[in-house]
Amino acid sequence: MANSLSSLRESNRRMVTEAVRRAGTLTQAQLARTTGLSPATVSTIVRELRDLGVLAITSGGGRRNAVTLAPESGLLVGIDFGHSHLRVAIGEVTRQILAERAIPIDVDASAAEGLLAAELLVDELLRSLGAQRTEILGVGLGVPGPIDPLTGILGSSTILPGWVGINPALAMGERLGLAVHVDNDANLGALAEATWGAARGRRDVAYLKIASGVGASIIIDGRVYRGASGAAGELGHITIDENGRLCRCGNRGCLETLAGGLYLTELVRATHGPGVTVTRLVELALAGDVGCRRVIGDAGRHLGVAIASLCNILNPGLVVVGGALAEAGPLLIDPILEVVRRLAIPSAAAVLSVVPGALGERAGVLGALASVQISNMESAL
Amino acid sequence: MANSLSSLRESNRRMVTEAVRRAGTLTQAQLARTTGLSPATVSTIVRELRDLGVLAITSGGGRRNAVTLAPESGLLVGIDFGHSHLRVAIGEVTRQILAERAIPIDVDASAAEGLLAAELLVDELLRSLGAQRTEILGVGLGVPGPIDPLTGILGSSTILPGWVGINPALAMGERLGLAVHVDNDANLGALAEATWGAARGRRDVAYLKIASGVGASIIIDGRVYRGASGAAGELGHITIDENGRLCRCGNRGCLETLAGGLYLTELVRATHGPGVTVTRLVELALAGDVGCRRVIGDAGRHLGVAIASLCNILNPGLVVVGGALAEAGPLLIDPILEVVRRLAIPSAAAVLSVVPGALGERAGVLGALASVQISNMESAL
DNA sequence: GGGTGTAGGTTCGGAACCTGAACATGGGAG
DNA sequence: CTCCCATGTTCAGGTTCCGAACCTACACCC
């Protein structure tokens, strides 16, 4: 705001770095075309950013240079907490994943236990790479619940009961001795899908993550929309049936009590054994089990009700469905579409696509990596 | 995009005109403070815009000049079609309303009849001002239904059955021989409330218009959010009760069948006579009629369900409730709040304010005037 | 192998833009 | 009446971007 000229330059620099981050590798000419800037301007900006250490030019044979993000000789860590799983990935700024691993965790474990498990897993992956903690440039952390944007504290409607009221970024940061960027897992999944996955290139998208719970994230004009208190996208606790089951959030008949994995597995436990997980449920359905197909279909129809509301409010052109249940593909998507076409107003339903996520269960952790990458770039300016 | 420098200048000009439009009158120093530009830049931009005929400088005594929008010696016309009313206002660019009048119209009238009535009313108001049609600079038109942003055709879920499939901007434009800007009445109401009313200064707001039908508009980052096909904000056709009454949109149990004025008046017709309108219903309730109070309270509770969904999705900080039913004040707002506090997730409910609109029934027509003003400014650049 | 065409990247001059400083002017406090 | 301050203008200076010209490397054709 102080100087409109330098803010213009900054904005153009941001455009360039963002374009490189999204594409991975570009030539300067491509950069000029995608950003709309002139080749001359791109030339100077790329040189500046190279000198600043943000970009790297791998002189890929003569004139045709490839512009990438600077490797920075450092590692990025992404951590994704789910209801029953913990996934950690270590990657480079260049988007290359070096190591990745998921382990089961105990649902009712305290936050401290979960954070310890994450710390150990990070160390284990570092060991497997022969790397040190000091090489870590940044850490991104995904949690299944809303984060208060002011305090950084995990909101009440989380899947992890032992975590309510703590500040995961601070807690994890103390353990690793690093700054940690924390966000809702749905927001991170949306970020990943919008950057590299099924929503690539879209400016306005809604992303649903259907796993143990139901989360969502709204992307408007290319950015995660967070609302007044960071609670935007809490689709899982929309009331579908005012007299329905009690939800862990304290209300009745939330979408999550009708389409969340915790509830769905409960439905088939009697017939398919007590150890059924969401993933197993999907496998059985894909293998032809009619009961499991029905359960997933019903979940899709309930999701359809909520997505129809979403359509009438925001009229998105694309809804990406991620999370473990989305692996069911058309078994889940078709019932969603059926209900949306029936309930949403026609002009909104007509333009809507509903597609499964392209990144699967890794969306969260990839989004965590992407968020560190972005915040790293921002700080380098 | 072609020239980033000139686009910067353009953006700054737009900032200046927008600031003047919102405030009405400003000195250059105030302008510099609100826009963050330097006084020197403001000086040159104001001079340019004065030469362009967009701004006027009323030299209010020596150095302390007052900058306003140029009177342009012309008139703006705002037209607002409702279910049973038609309201027309004629104003100056300086935001002053010169003449305004509302007349009842027949619900089932054809579009041609409605447009004719509007044309006659415009002429009548012009006559009362001693003005000619040639003095009209622009016309803004509000209609109670979604407008397809590509074709300009009124969508199917309109309150005016005779209007489906026509292009109101073209039709009205032919009659008046002028370019007409058309938009959803809820969008225009939101624009008016955000510019001069209860949502003044807010960047993110939701506006509900509850009259014969239920419409809504979402303002994100200061602009009306229209979605992929211009259908964003169709809150009236969110499904509240899947097995509820048939709605004119073809579905069952839409919010409108539970909170729309058409339905509410039906409820009290048996006890209070067949001629009860929404306005009369509100008057009776305010006078203490328990039946009418109950009807409005129930409508508020149903609205609360939809607004709770809206909260969980978008987490707005402010919801403005307009339209004839909003005149009931706390009789409507309190039940809304009660339900929202119960159904929305706590962190979203905590930051939400629900307030009645400040512009009353005039919001639509004022918004229509504002939209012409804006589009006029844009074209003058 | 050599010539030519094409596309990428750089450099340079020009034009537009914003800002800080200096300056003129009018109003208000004492 | 004078001083002080806020306002608005002008000017020089610095920054930014763009168009055009230029150079380089690769591909292709003969």
UniProtKB/TrEMBL annotation, chains A, B:
This is Transcriptional regulator. Pfam families: HTH_24, ROK. Belongs to the ROK (NagC/XylR) family. It comes from Acrocarpospora phusangensis. It comes from the Bacteria.
